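Worked example 3. Consider a protein that binds NDP.
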Amino acid sequence: MTQIIDGKAVAARLRSSLAARIAQLSFKPGLAVVRVGEDPASGVYVRNKDRAASEAGFASRTIHLPESTTEAELLAQIAALNADPGVDGILVQLPLPKHIRSEAAIAAVDPAKDVDGFHPVNAGKLASGLPGLVPCTPRGVMHLLAEAKAKLSGARAVVVGRSQIVGRPMAQLLLGADCTVTIAHSRTADLPGECRRADILVAAVGRPEMIRGDWVREGAMVIDVGINRMPDGKLKGDVAYEEALPRAAAITPVPGGVGPMTIACLLENTLEAALARRA
Ligand code: NDP
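Given these inputs, the predicted complex is written out as structure tokens:
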């Protein structure tokens, strides 16, 4: 029987274990989320992050700057948060307005407070196998693979997608767990063939149901990172779920799979950053 990996339940357990650890501390770890402009999806994400952080016992605050904020003003705001001893984690919500370079904003965050794990110093540490802050979504996927009791050492892992925020760090984490890793992307010559070799298949593409059921090896673990909003308002993943279900040993649904893990891992990163700064 295929195991359906319940990301909502795993994320809830992780959040309550973080809350229990925070309850033992003599301080509240601080998370600051910076939002610029009025991107509607960002508004929902930021509210969800703020609520989850407060519920788990973090001191959470959102700094909402107007669309007209200049890059220099945003960098000054980030510098102030870097210097603020009450702030352990800083997250700059993407996308930023077009006149602000997101690389500049990401690089301005103190790597010790970079709870998104996007700063080149943290990306470099991950690529070098050194400890550092790891991007939240791939970190969440590693939790889900542990939940599914995936045997990672020696497994063939295929990651479809090579973005800085999901695909690349995902591949690094799987490599660090001793998988043999292939990274596939839009120029991959035989994507179905690459996917069929995977014991662990991670889809992070952003194209609804692109990965067909017959691309999934019998007994593979399938992790679907994709979140695609369809014209009817429903969410679909990058994997054709109903087709893949009978072939996979374990699979994440969309919604309710990887999605809920991202915020839980943001909180996990914030607690880690807080403890590391005080060590
Ligand atoms: P990007 O658009 O940054 O990257 C997409 C990747 O998919 C690129 O590497 C691209 O290749 C590759 N790709 C595009 N088309 C194809 C194709 N036809 N065949 C093979 N590869 C292809 O997306 P993200 O990494 O930011 O996000 C991926 C998905 O994950 C999205 O649906 C997003 O919404 C979701 N997501 C979910 C999160 C969660 O919390 N669950 C968090 C973050 C993202 P190339 O590099 O060659 O262009």
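Take a moment to read the result before moving on. The chain is about 40% helix and 15% strand. The domain at 136-259 is CATH 3.40.50.720 (Rossmann fold).
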